[in-house]
Amino acid sequence: MASSERLQLEPISVSSPRVRDGGPLPSDYSCDGSAGNPPLRWSRVPEGTGSVAIVVDNNSRTGGEVNWVVFDIDPRTNELPEGSVPTGAVEGSTTNGRVGYNPPCGAQENYRFTVYALKDWVRLRKGAPLNETLKSIADKTIAWGRLTTVHVE
């Protein structure tokens, strides 16, 4: 998909009862905590969405890091409880090769929680290589939205 087409996509609304967009990431969800991923909610997923994916990363000047990839989420799902993965969803590898939520550690980094509406299922195995997973998500994206934190508390 061309970047000009991507800019025209209707954004998904992403929120959290524990994390404010533009605010700090509570330490419970960092490498200093034990809660796992923060709870997320999303809305305005377009009709015809085949599945949903979530990517957590930072957009650091040093190249960034992907802390979590979860895909093949049922398109009728609109929230993710704290420390959980939706039934039937699949987790891919992160930048460090681990599978699952890799808690952010960079206290001064911005972390992005991006929800993608996809036209189809990703259909990769658990622990699939990061580059393969991100390419598949990018190729199937029809809409996306993001919650961004400005540092870790």
UniProtKB/TrEMBL annotation:
InterPro entries per UniProt: PEBP, PEBP-like_sf, YbhB_YbcL/LppC-like
A Pfam cross-reference name: PBP
Span list, region Disordered: 1-39
GO molecular function, one term: protein kinase inhibitor activity
Alphabetical UniProt keywords: Protein kinase inhibitor
Repeat found in the keyword field: no
Family to which the UniProt record says this protein belongs: Belongs to the UPF0098 family.
PANTHER family: PEBP (PHOSPHATIDYLETHANOLAMINE-BINDING PROTEIN) FAMILY PROTEIN, UNCHARACTERIZED PROTEIN YBCL-RELATED
UniProt-recorded name of the protein: YbhB/YbcL family Raf kinase inhibitor-like protein
Source species of the chain: Streptosporangium longisporum
